[in-house]
């Protein structure tokens, strides 16, 4: 990551590594968090909800990111579950998220 930052003219402090968890079992996420990964990304609200619900006492510093297309009917859950939503692709979705 440091080499990529140098090539891009950025410092590592300007970059966040997000471990994408799509399709991975909870044990893999728990191991990654135990190794120091604090940013986790998911692109399915229901899958993230299940993982978060099954996780007994997740690390306090863990941050969840929603990546990919978000349907408006899942906005309420997404706002409750995720720290950051990266993929707002319409004014209607932005309005729905703002209301939540």
Topology at a glance:
Blueprint: H1 2-8, E1 19-20, H2 26-34, E2 39-42, H3 45-54, E3 63-66, H4 75-81, E4 84-85, H5 91-99
Parallel strand pairs: 1-2, 2-3, 3-4
Write a structural description.
The chain has 100 residues and is α/β, with parallel strands linked by helices. The chain has helices at 2-8, 26-34, 45-54, 75-81, 91-99; strands at residues 19-20, 39-42, 63-66, 84-85. The chain has 5 helices and 4 strands. Strands 1-2-3-4 form a 4-stranded parallel β-sheet. Helix 3 links the parallel strand 2 and strand 3 (63-66). The termini are far apart.
Tag the structure with descriptive keywords:
four-stranded parallel beta sheet; 4 strands; alpha/beta
Q: Quick summary of this structure?
A:
With 100 residues, the chain is of the alpha/beta class. The protein has 5 helices and 4 strands; from the N terminus they run H-E-H-E-H-E-H-E-H. It has a 4-stranded parallel sheet with strand order 1-2-3-4.
- SSE pattern: HEHEHEHEH
According to DSSP, the number of beta strands is 4
Beta-strand fraction estimate:
5-15%
What general outline do the C-alpha atoms trace? Answer: flat
Q: Give the termini distance in whole angstroms.
A: 35 Å
* Low-confidence region ranges: none
Gyration radius (Cα, Å) is 15 Å
Physical arrangement of strands within the biggest beta sheet: 1-2-3-4
Largest sheet: 4 strands, parallel
Name the average pLDDT: 92
- The helix/strand class is alpha/beta
| Helical segment count | 5
Measured as a percent range, the helix fraction is 40-55%
């Amino acid at each position: 990551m440091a080499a990529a930052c140098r090539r891009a003219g950025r410092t590592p402090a300007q970059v966040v590594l997000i471990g994408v968890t799509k399709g991975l079992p909870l044990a893999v996420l728990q191991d990654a968090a135990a190794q120091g990964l604090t940013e986790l990304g998911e692109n399915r609200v229901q899958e993230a909800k299940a993982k978060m619900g099954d996780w007994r006492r997740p690390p306090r510093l863990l941050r969840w990111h929603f990546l990919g297309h978000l349907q408006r009917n899942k906005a309420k859950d997404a706002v409750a579950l995720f720290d950051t939503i990266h993929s707002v692709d319409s004014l209607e979705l932005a309005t729905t998220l703002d209301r939540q």
